Amino acid sequence: MARITFEDLAAMDDELLDENVAEDNPEPMNEEEEERLLAHWQAVASTHHVVVPQEMAAPIQQMARQTQERQPVPFVPLSCHEKNKEILYEERVYPAGKWAYVIKGEDLYEQSISMAFMKLMRYICSENSAGRYLGMTVPILNEIQMAKDEKSFVRDVLTAYYLPAEFQDKPPEPTDPDIQIVQRETVRVITRVFYGTTTEETIMRQISLLWELLGSTDDFLRETYMVAVYENPGVPRRRNEIWFIRREP
Question: What are phi and psi of 81, to 5 degrees?
């Protein structure tokens, strides 16, 4: 059975957050609040046919306490293309930096990103050589490779988390051998926002739409794409982005 995704683990309705983890009250939850929070996530997960195991209780609580402190991955905007005051796509440069990543190859895209992020979440919260919470950055990136038929994905999906500025020079080592730290080079991308769930079907639709907007061009990779995830299922039309990678000159 699939594990819970980044969006599911991040989801927290405002009422539950206000009651349990208000910003001006960082005190640990009592046992009843902890059980209620875990039950909340298990209920959310069940709607996606996924399971939140008991060992995720502590990371979920840690993330809930820090929900207002997500840091954006740095980038430089280059251009914005609009039509009738609607943004069609943007071009950005993301500078080089260190990322932690996991590669998973499950039967479904959703399963791969779910299992990968659960590992990253534990690394972020405490399972690292510093033994501390590292801080959450957004977006989480899911890098996909197209199959030879160009109609489906290769099973292996790379899920990556940008290390906060504090840890860029010396990232804490993960205790999980499946997690690797890598220096990713500067990348120039075309980005287009879309809303809702991220499945292989919805992502393929977004890839097709962006190619239609860009027209016939060889400026971008056709075998590799990225999906940037920003928000959670608590948002009715949650924000994601499809990224096309510009070829190096």
Answer: -105, 125
Dihedrals φ, ψ of 93, to 5°?
Answer: -120, 125
Please tell me the distance from the alpha carbon of residue 154 to that of residue 26, in angstroms, as a whole number.
Answer: 43
| Tokens 């939850």 found at | 29
Prediction pTM value: 0.85
Q: What's the whole-number mean pLDDT along residues 5-15? A: 48
In Å, how far from its chain's centre is CA 35?
26
Q: 231 to each of 16, 102, 127, 154, 180, how far by Cα in Å? A: 17, 20, 24, 25, 24
User: What does the pLDDT look like over 181-236, one tens digit per residue?
Assistant: 999 999 999 999 999 888 899 999 999 999 999 999 999 999 999 999 987 544 45
CA separation, residue 53 to residues 7, 116, 128, 218, 248 (Å): 16, 14, 20, 45, 43
The C-alpha atoms of residue 81 and residue 87 are separated, in whole angstroms, by 6
Q: 80 burial class (0-12, 13-18, 19+ CB within 10 angstroms)?
A: exposed
**pLDDT at residue 224, as a whole number:** 97
At residue 63, the 3 state secondary structure works out as helix
- DSSP letters of 104-118? E--SSHHHHHHHHHH
**What does the pLDDT read at residue 70?**
85
Burial 200-231 (b: 16+ CB within 10 A, else e): eebbbebbeebeeebeeeeebbeeebbbbbbb
- Contacts of 194 by beta carbon, 8 Å cutoff, 6+ apart: 202, 206, 240, 241, 242
Q: Which residues of 129-167 are buried (b: 16+ CB within 10 A; e: fewer)?
A: eeeebbebbbbbbbbbebeeeeeebebebbbbbbbbeeb
